[in-house]
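Structure (tokenized):
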């Protein structure tokens, strides 16, 4: 029999190649091709053997809401849809040092303190390191079982007994390996096989499985993309190391709403939940400053108020700079183009800096009007009216379109003491009259310029000669 040909697999997307190449043709990643050991025997087809008959049931069954185990950390339970579901697999990813292991250790000790059997298996830290972290966080007395292991076979054999744990934390999935494969831990084959075995064990025994996942330098979860499809919930940590705030966002959730967020603050005592993120993001806001607008947004099911800051300054460069933090750079270019074409503002020759205060990343288009208001305010050097929130989607023709859940945005703004809102026109005028604060309807961007104080003064770019 001929020897099996070598197999080269991309560590980013899992695509296979007949030989080593510097760049993957499937995903475009550089230096991600690694040789993996070939299979001993090729996979066999179904052949003519008869399989086991499966039972098909009707859609209208006696379904019920799955029972959940609440950790007691309200922000974490909110992200998971009210608590952890028995037999579910959760993948938590984020940048190094952002707080993944700390948060899961706090959740595991909280459930262990309630009487549930919980196990924490680390492939990156020794047991003494975990104990040292628990003492630093004041959690050393919790009845949590610890282990340091990387073999999936050993982990499953040790826990697959008469009383398996109710919760299993594996930190991290990229350090686990299956001994039937010869490739190194962290490769596509090992991550896929290790996750499959652990998820199969969790589903079979009704164990809540929490997996910690590494990320690449682009911010994507390391390993094959199929890993995100295998688990029930994918939660991603967001935030900058320079900020003390951490945002846990549910990217995927089969047992709850996706795109739900939980806000935490990193302290010496671990991650502390933030019950009112709006007040936190606006806590250091200064009034009567040009280039600042308060945006009333929706993150998951929660209304959140955040300050958007813009700075428009004359540029001495042939190509003016565009720096964006916390928002989409392409969306900023679109809003600037609409302001130039429809409102006659001269933004092309200026440097433009845009920042979302607090480290939150905004993805919804309802922030278009708030960004436009901040840009116009900075260019005109005129502050927005005091106690005013802004939201609305901007179209290419300069019109301002309606957004979802406008009432919830207005109620959150009124609760925090805001008196006015710049918002798109309402479908039902009578309904808008019952708003908890005064609403100035902005139908086009020209109305926004008139509200701020007329057309901005000319601020031409510096002479580049």
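Design, position by position:
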């Amino acid at each position: 029999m001929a020897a099996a040909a070598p197999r080269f697999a991309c560590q980013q997307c899992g695509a296979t190649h007949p030989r080593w190449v510097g760049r993957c043709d499937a995903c475009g990643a550089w230096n991600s091709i690694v040789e993996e050991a070939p299979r001993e025997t090729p996979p066999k087809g179904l052949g003519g053997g008869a399989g086991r008959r499966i039972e098909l049931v009707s859609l209208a069954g006696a379904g019920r809401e799955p029972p959940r185990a609440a950790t007691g950390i309200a922000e974490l339970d909110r992200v998971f849809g009210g608590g952890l579901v028995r037999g579910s697999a959760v993948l938590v990813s984020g940048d190094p040092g952002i707080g993944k292991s700390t948060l899961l250790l706090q959740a595991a000790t909280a459930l262990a303190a309630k009487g549930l059997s919980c196990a924490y298996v680390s492939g990156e830290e020794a047991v003494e390191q975990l104990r040292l972290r628990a003492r630093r966080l004041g959690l050393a007395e919790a009845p949590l079982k610890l282990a340091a292991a990387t073999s999936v076979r050993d982990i499953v054999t040790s826990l697959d007994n008469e009383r398996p744990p109710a919760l299993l934390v594996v930190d991290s999935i990229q350090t686990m390996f299956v001994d039937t494969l010869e490739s190194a831990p962290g490769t596509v084959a090992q991550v896929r096989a290790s996750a499959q075995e652990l998820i199969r064990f969790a589903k079979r025994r009704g164990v809540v499985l929490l997996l910690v996942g590494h990320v690449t330098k682009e911010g994507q979860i390391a390993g094959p993309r199929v890993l995100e499809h295998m688990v029930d919930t994918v939660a991603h940590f967001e935030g900058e190391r320079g900020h003390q705030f951490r945002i846990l966002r549910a990217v995927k959730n089969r047992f709850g709403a996706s795109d739900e967020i939980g806000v935490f603050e990193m302290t010496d005592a671990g991650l502390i939940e933030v019950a009112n993120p709006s007040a936190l993001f606006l806590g250091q806001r200064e009034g009567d400053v040009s280039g600042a607008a308060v945006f009333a947004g929706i993150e998951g099911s929660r209304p959140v108020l955040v300050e958007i800051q813009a700075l428009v300054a004359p540029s001495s460069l042939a190509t003016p700079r565009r720096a964006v933090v916390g928002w989409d750079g392409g969306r900023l270019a679109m809003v600037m183009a609409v302001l130039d074409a429809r409102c006659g503002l001269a933004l092309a020759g200026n440097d433009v800096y845009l920042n979302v205060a607090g480290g939150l990343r905004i993805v919804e288009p309802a922030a278009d009007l708030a960004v436009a208001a901040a840009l116009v305010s900075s260019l005109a050097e005129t502050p927005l009216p005091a106690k005013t929130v802004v939201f609305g989607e901007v179209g290419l023709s300069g019109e301002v379109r309606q957004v979802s859940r406008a009432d919830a945005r207005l109620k959150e703004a009124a609760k925090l003491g805001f008196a006015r809102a710049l918002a798109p026109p309402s479908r039902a005028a009578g309904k808008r009259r019952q708003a908890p604060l005064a609403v100035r309807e902005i139908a086009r961007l020209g109305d926004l310029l008139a509200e701020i104080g007329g057309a901005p003064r000319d601020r031409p770019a510096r002479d580049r000669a």
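Reviewer-requested clarification: Confidence is low (pLDDT under 50) at residues 456-465. Residues 188-205 form the longest helix (18 residues).
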